[in-house]
Amino acid sequence: MDEPEQELGITESKEYNTGDWYAEVVRKAQLADYAPMGGFIVTRPRGYAIWERIESHLDGWFKQTGVQNAYFPVFIPESYLEREKEIVEGFDPEVAWVTHGGYDELDERLAVRPTSESIITPYVSQWIRSHRDLPLRLNQWCSVVRWEATETKPFFRTKEFLWQEGHTAHRDREGAWEETMTRLGQYERLYNEVLAIPPLVGRKPEHDKFPGADTTTTVEALMPDGKSVQGGTSHYLGTTFADAFDVTYADADERERTAHTTSWGLSWRSMGALIMTHSDDQGLVLPPTLAPEQAVIVPIWDDQSKAAVLEYAGEVERTLTEAGVRVHLDDRENRTPGFKYNEWELKGVPLRIEVGPNEVADGELTLVHRPDGETMTVDSAGTAGTVDEHLETIYAKLYDAAEQTLEAGIREAESREEILGTIGKHGGYVKAGWCGDEACEAPIKDAVAAEIVMVPLDPDEEPIHEACAICGEPAAETAYFARTY
Amino acid sequence: MDEPEQELGITESKEYNTGDWYAEVVRKAQLADYAPMGGFIVTRPRGYAIWERIESHLDGWFKQTGVQNAYFPVFIPESYLEREKEIVEGFDPEVAWVTHGGYDELDERLAVRPTSESIITPYVSQWIRSHRDLPLRLNQWCSVVRWEATETKPFFRTKEFLWQEGHTAHRDREGAWEETMTRLGQYERLYNEVLAIPPLVGRKPEHDKFPGADTTTTVEALMPDGKSVQGGTSHYLGTTFADAFDVTYADADERERTAHTTSWGLSWRSMGALIMTHSDDQGLVLPPTLAPEQAVIVPIWDDQSKAAVLEYAGEVERTLTEAGVRVHLDDRENRTPGFKYNEWELKGVPLRIEVGPNEVADGELTLVHRPDGETMTVDSAGTAGTVDEHLETIYAKLYDAAEQTLEAGIREAESREEILGTIGKHGGYVKAGWCGDEACEAPIKDAVAAEIVMVPLDPDEEPIHEACAICGEPAAETAYFARTY
Fold first, then answer.
1. Same domain assignment for residues A318 and A204
2. Is A15 helix (H, G, I), strand (E, B) or coil?
3. I want to staple B31 with a disulfide (CB 3.0 to 4.6 A). Which of A231, A297, B47, B285 is the partner?
4. What is the rounded average pLDDT of the residues B399-409?
């Protein structure tokens, strides 16, 4: 062993020191490192492989539903950013500015894109002439930069982050709203079917909408430490951007009309939620949907059994590979089985397959589930089907645990004190009647750093209580208070 | 028709006005538009779809040969860029600098990455401890920015361009050289098997290597106008970067050794070569490997035959889709068949399938090859196999035409006058004996704007002539002179 064991292991506690534990898991599972510039990270292959799989799922769904990928410049001229005033007010404080090209100062500063409405919408305006050109649905996978001066938290808070941003134009409100809901539904599906995290879906309150949006809808995921992660947002932009950039079209009756637009984005923050939700004090835990290796085979041998064990293990590997399972046979000579167990647990491989002389003799395999360590011996006949079933079971275990966290994490409150007490004690979501005024969020924010992360999607839904829990005026809707990442 | 026909058609001539013709094809086939900032372009869905397919082919080959994708920051601190002096000398004049984050001036300027050796190698240094960590092979798909003040030519010359950059570390020269050749071979394969362009492979002369490289190898493609495109480069970097960034490892004998590194990149310039090579005065021509639609079905009907024609066409579409052909049925009501022919020709669809009352009556299909307009009638039985064969034939037609261009475009010369005369009259490559001194390239550059684009890969290959065609001293190698993009 030329690598000390303690370097591999997680030393922080998820329960008692969540922030440090998270940072340690990200680094020791080799997902990311810190970059030399504060706020930036380097995404290592094991981290990027997860993002690639998230991208592959979403991109497939987007393409099935009429979205085309494109690529717009990384820079946006300052004058373009200024054409929509809410965008400039919302993002100006966070823009990284390019001022020089080579040895020359530029005539006009260029923003490194913080989001691309201001450079995409002018082209949408050129490309649309007639109602037959609608809907127009564009998406790009890229990075954006927002110069926020907060502590770096890999995937949760970084000055540069990877995301996809979708931008669409439609004939009318109805088409654009349907689009907004389609993308929100795909984000929800990603959480449910790929990330193994049941989310809540809702709207952002008026005062926390995307700059320029008519409505911002959101997927929210509850973390085990009681904080909510905004896991993806889908915006119905009304005609704000269409008006600012002249996105009009000739309708069937030849009259010029203004298009309605949407935008929607999901970032690698979803990876942060994934890591935070499932991992534990042994390290990373990944669902089989996203794990670079779904199963690892660890052979256990002595001099006498070595050849037979390795042959048997090799056969299992071939069978699983042919069946499309992402499997790795760890036949390193210079590592003990125990060392290998720890290493693959740290790296989050969902299923461990142990193969020793007993397994060879009995034609069996020993399977160990990463999330809970459940161990069982199975017949080696029908290996591929058996492993598939176990991978599904592992997904279900992760999903069920996250669902329990969510179900236990939604509470109600009828007064300011009750909101503060409940969030202070349990975290999670607290549902309360709300008059709709941002002023009633302020005392909660000040006291326990919680905010209104969402209200119900349906604006006509009756509020949970008749009165606003803070001011006592009639409630307009139900607010979900929570601390956030 | 609410869109005037002439807007669709190409008006410039490929033969007589290549530059304007190219720009017109790019815009009218909806591949790209110019961005508001000079030197930048907007890549539209039909352009990006080609790049996605190039990416998909190469990425698959990379992964099969041990490469892992990662993502490094878009910015590089100035002090990091300065750590390898040849990099800073080579790229400093072309760097876009971020000087402000939000309202604050930064303590240190950040370069928007022109290439990532200077940010990747320090991490490679941290991640490698033992010979068991080698080889380490990283790649990223991203954009880079180089502030060159030349005329914009979409995909050929843009200040921001999309590419992949691979970065690897190895135990010794042999491993790193093998890697350099593997990637060069994959680029060559891309040109041969995907882009339908037979390339030349060779080395860049000493004075035109990548900054810091020991050897730069290149894939060169000859365009129909006689200019050479550098289509992808693979660099053996020796220990230049490993020395600058301390990339050392403990070898099997426990001694500390310096790694040898490589880097290799292919950009969307390959798309430029693709468009330039195959397209014609009717518009874009794409090989079936990369075309968003491989075949388009154009139904031809009158009132009486409409129902039968559309049913028949729909069946052909279903059959082809099920067989994995990317096919589109253009059943628009408000366009004539002739209009549709022109539009899909402009957009480069390799195969047109015409279906009218005669085809329905006879159980046939009329097929038209985009590259040469060859038209034939085939039986509709076994449609999928027939179409596959025709797509292969179309690929072969494109490849053969490009091969003829290349074969006719390589000439020899034994004197300065002969080089100048041959390039002046024919373009293409001129092979000549060369002493190895950059000074002997200068008069050719000055007179006809041609340079030495490559020398043979094998440094021991005998020069074509005994004397340098320019100075008359003994020739050290064979130089390939050509004008370039």
1. no
2. coil
3. B47
4. 97
**Cα-Cα end-to-end distance for chain B:** 39
pLDDT for B5 equals 45
Same domain for B376 and B424, yes or no, is no
Residues of B in contact with A40 (CB under 8 A): 73, 75
B349, B376, B397 - which closes a domain? B397
Q: Which stretches in chain A have pLDDT values below 70?
A: 1-7
Residues B383 and B438 in one domain: no
CATH number of the domain to which A151 belongs: 3.30.930.10
Residues from chain B that touch A102, judged by Cβ atoms under 8 A, are: 92-95, 147, 149
Whole-number pLDDT of residue B93: 87
Dihedral sign computed on CA atoms, order B143, B144, B145, B151: negative
pLDDT of residue A449: 96
Q: CA of A105 to nearest chain B CA: how many angstroms apart?
A: 10
Instruction: Judge if B414 and B383 occupy the same domain.
Output: no
% of chain A surpassing 70 pLDDT: 98
Residue-level pLDDT at B151: 86
> Which chain A positions have a beta carbon within 8 Å of B69's beta carbon?
45, 48-49, 52
A100 and B100 in contact by Cβ < 8 A? no
* Residue A311 belongs to a domain: yes
Is residue A56 less than 8 Å (CB to CB) from chain B? Answer: no
Q: Which helix (H) or strand (E) holds A442?
A: helix A442-448
Name the residue among A68, A103, A110 with its Cβ closest to that of B37: A110
Q: What does the pLDDT look like over B302-334, one tens digit per residue?
A: 999 999 999 999 999 999 999 999 999 999 998
pLDDT for A7: 63
Q: What is the mean pLDDT of chain B?
A: 96
List residues bridging with B474 in a β-sheet. B467
Q: Which residue of A has its CA nearest to B46?
A: A70
Model confidence over B380-394: pLDDT tens digits?
Answer: 999 999 999 999 999
Q: Which two tokens stand for residue B328?
A: 């589109």
Structural domain that includes position A433? 410-484
Q: What is the pLDDT of residue B150?
A: 79
Q: Please state the φ and ψ torsions of residue A30, each to the nearest 5 degrees.
A: 60, 40
By the 8 A CB rule, do B236 and B214 touch? yes
Of B371, B397, B423, the last residue of a domain is B397
pLDDT of residue B393: 98
Q: Does residue A92 sit at the B interface (CB-CB below 8 Å)?
A: yes
For residues A389 and A461, state if they share a domain: no
Q: Does A2 touch chain B (CB under 8 A)?
A: yes
A415 and A350 within one domain = no
What type of residue is A380? S
| Residues B192 and B48 grouped into a single domain | yes
| Count of domains observed in chain B | 3
Give me the helix-helix angle, B269-278 and B18-28, nearest 10°.
110
* B323 lies in some domain: yes
Give the domain CATH number at A362: 3.40.50.800
Q: Does A414 lie in the same domain as A392?
A: no
The CATH number of whichever domain residue B452 belongs to comes to 3.30.110.30
Query: With contacts defined as CB-CB under 8 Å, which chain B residues touch A101?
Result: 95-97, 147, 159
d(CA B130, CA A335): 15
Cβ of B43 within 8 Å of Cβ of A72? The answer is: yes
Q: Is residue B226 part of a domain?
A: yes
- C-alpha distances out from residue B62 to A51, B99, B166, B183, B194, Å: 18, 36, 9, 8, 15
B-contacting residues in A 6-35 (Cβ below 8 Å): 33, 35
Cβ contacts of residue B242 below 8 Å, gap of 6+? B121, B125, B169, B248, B258, B259, B260, B261
pLDDT, residue B7, reads: 63
Quick check: B73 and A145 CB within 8 A? no
ipTM over 0.85: yes
Residue B418 in this model has a pLDDT that exceeds 80: yes
Q: Which of B37, B93, B129 sits opposite A103 (nearest CB)?
A: B93
CA distance A108 to B316: 54
